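We modelled the chain as a single entity of 273 amino acids. Its sequence is:
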Amino acid sequence: MNQNQVKLIAIDMDGTLLDSQKEIPVENIQAIQEAAAAGIKIVLCTGRPRSGIVPHFEKLGLSEEEYIIMNNGCSTYETKNWTLLQYESLSHTELEDLFQVSKDFPDVTLTLTGEKTYYVVGNEVPDLVAYDAGTVYMVAEAKSLEEIFAEGQVIFEAMYMAESKPLDDFQNAMEESLSQHYSTVRSQDYIFEIMPQGATKASGLKHLAEKLGIDPEQIMALGDAANDIEMLEFVGQSVAMGNASDDIKSLSKYVTLTNDQAGVAHAIRTWAL
């Protein structure tokens, strides 16, 4: 396949598009604009909710309609009117089940990503959760499941949060049974994510590629972490960041510079344009 056939570039945000200060290097913005000008679709593909994406997306200065896959593949929006195109969600029964599971682990907090609200299931918002909500420009709200159900929002995914040691204990005890019913990923030291079964960045990207009539071989994807694995395996042109772990690098076709060296720009200019 010759390199000028890349028609879509799927870009993870944290550890990939964003540097370690959570900013987008200017070179990345320029390269993304060059790719868009060449007719390549730009798709941010991230675990973040919408509130944590829009301020960064606006800095890319893209004029055409683009698409964003959020919540690790649970929701896809088009950016012109922020229309929700496709989504996966957790049912009330599943949410009750996930809450029951957390009851034996007092240090672990269950949080839910709603279409508009970042919920904590319980009476208070722990500092760790408040910190995480702040990273996506939100304020977490503590509510009971009954109150959350009454508000009627689509719940895209759940996250168990704790310091790394208690979360290790929780994951070791519960991952096997949870992964029989849900898609699970330890996306950060303090976050163990629960998505509807089958929902990953790859599932979101597959739906979108089919809608746009783009073959996986014509997609370049860039990522650095465990929640990028399915996406990197799905596409023909997989790029691991220089700061990615060795297992991510070994399954990718290419390895670019780190996120602090504008690795996204280097990859786009080297393998897509």
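As a brief sanity check on the tokenised model: The mean pLDDT is 96. The CA atoms of residues 121 and 145 lie 6 Å apart.
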